[in-house]
Amino acid sequence: MHRRQLTLSAIALLCASPLVATAQAYPEKPVTIIVPFQAGGGSDNIARLIANKLNEKTGKTFIIDNRGGGGTNIGNELAARANPDGYTLLLGQFTLSVNPYLYNNLRYKADGFTPVVHIANAPTVLIVPSNSAIKDVAGLTAAAKANPGKLNYGSGGSGTSVHLAGELFKLTTRTDMTHIPYKGSAPAMTDLIGGQIQMMFDTSTSAISFVKGGKVRAIGMAADQRLKVLPDVPTFAEQGMKDFDVPAWYGFVAPAGTPAPIVQWLNTQVNAVLRDPAVVTQLDGIGAIGVGGTPQQMGEFMKAQSARWARVIKESNIKLD
Predict the structure, then answer these.
(1) 184, 204, 239: which is the final residue of a domain?
(2) Would the keyword Ribonucleoprotein turn up in this protein's UniProt record (predicted)?
């Protein structure tokens, strides 16, 4: 029995040794981070911040490859089909949790990714025109109930976190409002400032400059705490609406089958970056909150997000194809 145990241990060691060697040598060439958005937006800025810090701290090369379009499905599919060798990562975010329920004919599997690390959350903020008579969440709820179907809310596109935040608000408050989708948050913001729409949910990273510049008024933060950069904006919970927490989340995922030692190495490096005071300050400044944690915690978070938004999508009867 003792000899058999030794033999099995030796076999296990031999099987594990290639993975250990792989992790020790990795990365021997540049690592590509696919960002499923065009350059210049909030997601791209966060990815570049982390990539630049990884370059600096590890002495390795991490590069950004912007592959926007198709509701992020173009970039997501490209990453899912990549060789699972650790040299292709995806900046995963909210759409990974919802696209399987919004699209009937995805060309990648929802479970086609290995969680690596949860980078950050950007809370969703409810904003109205600066001259609006609506001052808080209760005021908006009352106005919506008094005028069913007449209030319009904009978003940066159907199926986005800010669109579904509006749908969750309707379900939670039992109100009827009309969704106006735009091709990006910028044109939606323009119409909100001009009064063509009455309200809008937007990510904190996108809305901060407009709020601080007085062009719009923030009346509610869909998060479990106030943002340091917008300390005067109360959370929904503070206004009596519990569990209305809608983060636009960001994390690295890898193609399914990526070796565990490589995933762990990447996780360790990103967690170290997120502890850097300069990174914490930069994330705070753009309205994002660093998270970190293990790959397992990232996977559990993604599953919880999928379950939550699957219900909202079903109850709201939303389909994008």
Answers:
(1) 239
(2) no
Contact 203, 248 (CB under 8 A): yes
Q: Which residues lie below 8 Å from residue 151, measured CB to CB, with a gap of 6+?
A: 143, 144, 177, 178, 198, 199
Task: Give 202-256 pLDDT, tens digit per residue.
Answer: 999 999 999 999 999 999 999 988 999 999 999 999 999 998 999 999 999 999 9
> Of the candidates 239, 263, 284, which is a domain's last residue?
239
SS3 251: strand
Q: Are strands 31-35 and 62-66 parallel, antiparallel or unpaired?
A: parallel
Q: Is residue 17 one of the residues assigned to a domain?
A: no
Yes or no: say if 26 and 262 are a contact pair by the CB < 8 Å rule.
yes
In a domain, 268, yes or no: yes
Do 52 and 158 fall within a single domain?
Answer: no
Record the pTM: 0.88
Nearest to 64 by CA among 90, 83, 86, 42: 90
What is the C-alpha to C-alpha distance for residues 224 and 237, in angstroms, rounded to an integer?
A: 7
Q: Helix, strand, or coil here: 106?
A: coil
Q: What is the DSSP string of 194-218?
A: HTSSSEEEEEHHHHHHHHHTTSEEE
Is there a contact between 270 and 252 (Cβ–Cβ < 8 Å)? yes
Owning domain of residue 168: 123-239
DSSP state at residue 238: G
pLDDT per residue as tens digits for the range 296-319: 999 999 999 999 999 999 999 998
> Do 226 and 145 have their domain in common?
yes
DSSP state at residue 235: B
CA–centroid distance for 43 within its chain: 8
Residue 69 to residue 46: CA distance in whole angstroms: 18
